[in-house]
Amino acid sequence: LSLASALRQGLRRNEFFLAYQPIVELATGRWVGAEALLRWRRSNGELIGPDLFIPVAERTGTITKLTERVLELVARDVGDFLARNPAFHIAVNLSAADLNLPVTRTLLDKLLADAGATPSNLIVEMTERALLDIATAKPVIASLRSGGIEVAVDDFGTGYSSLSYLESFELDFLKIDRAFTEAIGTRSPTDQVVHHIIAMAQTMKLRIIAEGVETEAQAEYLLGRGVQFAQGWRFARAMPWSELRAAFEQRG
Ligand code: G
Ligand code: G
Ligand code: MN
Ligand code: NA
């Protein structure tokens, strides 16, 4: 069985689920949102991460179905949470191929309707493993944003076209890739790059989410440079939605 056909079978058998990693406001430690991260539990019990299967799904066209499933799972997981917590954001990852499809907008609208949520509850993260057709994606992104959904450029600095994205699209968030967060305080050349990414994002009036924050020193550095948001093991790992909701409600 090739991975591509295993993916299709996994979809039929409902082997996919989501883990949610809190997005934290650095200044207060408050959980202001969560990123939905796709997981695949195969019938033999093996857990496979998206780094392995998303590229295959993108190459074989299964990504459209996977994304559809992700949006259904989010709607099912969050239930009426967003209606009760209107300031909370759910971030979902879309692939380039999704952005080029009109059906994506329909699915996002359905997700919001199912969850009784408003567009401002949703952040769309554009990943850049696959090169985006800018001419096609531009009106889609503009339409999402004019509808009130916010858009983030994910894994900034690692993909094909980070800088051209910033030139071509109006965006709301820039997510600093974990590789750059890791370099903070290491005196490596990459450490300097973090500084410049932050300055550039601020010049462009983008809000910043730093990924992979593991240490207090990294959090201090980011906060000191005006980075508002972070994800990472320093704060919380990705977890099942029920666990996140319980922890969120306990935190008050
Ligand atoms: O959670 P983990 O570190 O394994 O995720 C690895 C990568 O897979 C991340 O960069 C993330 O953006 C991507 N990813 C996770 N979930 C999804 C998803 O639902 N759709 C897409 N397209 N990418 C995802
Ligand atoms: O889509 P994105 O690239 O944001 O996915 C984030 C991935 O990074 C997830 O798979 C998550 O499990 C992983 N991750 C999240 N926080 C940390 C962290 O602090 N350290 C490390 N090493 N990995 C993390
Ligand atoms: Mn992401
Ligand atoms: Na990322």
Automatic annotation (TrEMBL):
It comes from the Bacteria. It is found in: Cell membrane. Residues 1-252 form the EAL domain. This is cyclic-guanylate-specific phosphodiesterase. It comes from Pseudoduganella albidiflava. The chain holds residues 343 to 594 of 609 of the full protein.
